[in-house]
Design a protein that fits this description.
Elements (H helix, E strand, L loop, with lengths): L2 H24 L6 H4 L11 H26 L6 H27 L10 H8 L7 H22 L6 H24 L13
Amino acid sequence: MNSDTQLSDRRSILKMAALSSATLAVGGLVAPPAIAAPRAGRGGSATAGADVGVMQGALALEHEGIAAYKIAAGSGLLSQGTIAVATVFLGHHEGHRDALAKLIAQAGGKPVEPKSNDEYIKALNIAALKSEADVVKFAAGLEQGATNAYVGQIAAIRDKQIAHLFAQLGTDEAVHWALLNAAAGGSVPQPAFLFS
């Protein structure tokens, strides 16, 4: 799977989560009433269900990122220096996961669970990675996709606190991408707007 496909897949996950949740909320079909109920002190409304749906998609991406870093670190392909950086990024993704899961639970949702490592290995075609350079380029593609996914969803978020979180998450992912892109020998992109 190439990085353009990964980017498209990550954007699609968030967009599908947002659209399906919005459709359910508009149709009055959001099952748990607590999700669509206004949240005290947060200015919540019936749109909270859509925000939860977007957060669920983001949480699924964070689970994917955590798995990818753990699998890569255990692959035997990485030097100690690269593992040290991957461990820092893994910690960031775990912090993202925890923040998203907490907000989903506070809104009355049940945070989506991670898939198995075998499922991630197959879905992301991780077995095709044969060198440290392959892993770094692959990770850069995942981080670019995550950045685009977060940036693309900020406008869909109704709750300002959650929109702010998505801006923070997108910024973290952009930093990860920039460092990995440089490590992979990638060039500095020419367009004025690097992420969509």
